[in-house]
Amino acid sequence: MLYRWLLALKKPSNRLWVEPALGAVLATLFAFAARLLNIWLPPDTLPEIELGTLESLLEVISSSMLAVSTFSLSIMVSAFASAASSATPRATELVMGDDTTRTAIASFISAFIYAIIAKTALGMEFYGQNGRFVLFVSTALVLAYLIVTLIRWVHTLSQLGRMGNTLDKIHTAASAAVRAYRARPNMGAAWQGKPHADAAVLYARGNGYLAHIDMAGLQKRAEEGEGYIHILVRPGELNYARHPAGHRQRRRHKHGHTARLLYARRGP
């Protein structure tokens, strides 16, 4: 079950919200971490930072990041719609999985949450002198990181959703798949030819493209059942409901062999 959850979270459509959510949690922890220095360091060890200076910096971050996040989300939705209308569904998934886009959105939302929490904590006198100095340094680092992210984001916006950029992503994904196939043509399974005639047929439960095969899980099932599993499909292939996806057969030898995961291609 945990493996399926992790696999689902890796989907590009889900990673769009996973990274901002994780960034929000880290931003919250980061804002409260400055409080710990009041416990670890003697009072008034670090330089004094005016409260107004911190509030001004946090106000700039909170107001600007809210506007930038809203604008970026609207641009991102427009780019996804453009890719969906001019390319295939698989290409749309690649556009949605753009690393720079996810990082930028997560950074903007996280910075906004960080500024709101830190500003609220300042108003409640949550930080001492040491904490305010650490908060000032961390806020300066956040600003520097946001500047770099904004520059990269502007470059990404000029290309996101365009046909040339989409084709580049398709080429990159296809090249990675070809290299993986060349390195492991049988995906780590043993080749033993065709399954026996008495092997049980395994059918697909629904229609769609096969996204992933849990080779380690199938190997474990084969060992537990003391048999063999023949895989007839490969990730990326279109499968139909009630269409044979593999065969399962019992091991004929009682001694001297361990269960192995087999791989057999269907067709030429």
TrEMBL record:
What InterPro entries would the database entry show? DUF2254_membrane
Name under which the protein is recorded: YjbE family integral membrane protein
Q: Which domain of life is it from?
A: Bacteria
Which species expresses this protein natively? Answer: Neisseria shayeganii 871
Keyword terms, alphabetized: Membrane, Transmembrane, Transmembrane helix
Q: Any stretches that span the bilayer, and where are they? A: 21-41, 61-83, 104-127, 133-154
